[in-house]
Amino acid sequence: MARRRRDAMDWVDRAISFYKSAGREIALAEYMNPRGQFVEDEMYVFVLDSAGTMLAHGVNEKFVGKDFINLKDSDDKPFIREIVDIANSQGSGWVQYRWYHPTSRKVVPKVVYFDKIDDMIFCSGVYEE
Q1: Which of 8, 35, 68, 121 stands the most exposed, by the fewest C-beta atoms within 10 Å?
Q2: Fold observed for domain 5-127
Q3: Domain extents in the chain
Q4: pTM exceeding 0.90
């Protein structure tokens, strides 16, 4: 089933609600739990700090602590920098980029919704094939 943009917004809203009730440490750990409530098929939550460092990633814990500000998509678009810039200036928004789809094994359009709360940018994206 193709995910819709509304799904990405819902996942970010749920992640923020969980953070507000559970606290930072527990929330970040839960976002990285592969069998937890924030990872399902190709949907997951990732969290950046306000400078582009990965604080949590639903499918690759090795990303945590790494600086992603200069990461680019397959068209050389610095999409993490765009997310961080918009989040820091406007609070929330959407960024579209091209990314590898793990099921189809093709590079396809993906759009991520994000919302900044405190010093963290909560993100979730959907493939738009």
Answers
A1: 35
A2: Beta-Lactamase (3.30.450)
A3: 5-127
A4: yes
